[in-house]
Amino acid sequence: MEKKMKFTKMQGLGNDYVYVNCFKEKIEDPSALAVRISDRHFGVGSDGLILINPSKVADCEMEMYNADGSRGEMCGNGIRCVGKYMYDYGLTDKEAISVETLAGIKYLQFFIENGKVAKVKVDMGSPILTPAEIPVVAEGERAVDEPIVVDGTEYRMTCISMGNPHAIVYVDDVKNLPIEKIGPLFEKHERFPNRVNTEFVKVLDRNTVEMRVWERGSGETLACGTGACATAVACILNGLTEEKVTVKLLGGDLEIEWDREKNKVFMTGPAKVVFDGVWEE
Predict the structure, then answer these.
(1) Is 2 annotated as a binding residue?
(2) What is the DSSP letter of 191?
(3) Annotation says 235 is catalytic
(4) Is 0.70 surpassed by the pTM of this model?
(5) Can you tell me which residues form the catalytic site (predicted)?
(6) What are the structural domains, with CATH classification, of the chain?
(7) Number of Cβ within a 10 Å radius of residue 258
(8) Which of 10, 16, 21, 257, by CA, is between 20 and 30 Å from 140?
(9) What confidence tens digit (pLDDT) does each residue in 206-235 have?
């Protein structure tokens, strides 16, 4: 029996996911579906699968899976697209909504142009700096400017969780970095019990940084919203930038602000629909 499922492919700065409206659709094994549908040759092609579910505690729930079928706690680019879907596809008429995630409830504010969502500002919550909660194996209360040896080279990293673990490493040359070689060595390093997302960062000025990211479970992606947030926080903690930072990623720019009084990180960026389709099993 063939089963048909409607889906929408969306992207935030080239970080692309397949979105399914589970107010209407029912998926029995999302982890296995994520692997098949994410395949760029035999599937739709994406960094993963995101289900938009009803929620008892928020306007909707975001249930996300990486391309390898592993469950992800949170995705900054993904959640902006969830917000756009909710508004553009008529699941809400509000211009600010709440979204339940494994990293807690996130709050979204929409910037509407011609009746559709063009940009989304996300309250990404408070950065987690305690090593055991990130988690990273490190002494002391914070892992800021901490030495780590990878493949015989010592790097300085700052570790932060935005609901998922990040290691921010400063490099002189982001563009020519051998990320395919070094990314997996950070990801699977023994100091990260749950693996890690690694951001390789160059500070351009007090308000601008450039970044490439190696995401656990997905490899290099064009953009990572939680990674951009973690990067901004790391830059501020290290005294390298002001509290508002433009993070330049391969897929475009994100505006990040760490409001230290409220201890909240806000991310503003675009969300776009690529196409709608029907998946047949």
Answers:
(1) no
(2) T
(3) no
(4) yes
(5) 75 (proton donor), 75, 224 (proton acceptor)
(6) 4-123+269-280 (3.10.310.10), 131-262 (3.10.310.10)
(7) 23
(8) 257
(9) 999 999 999 998 899 999 999 999 999 999
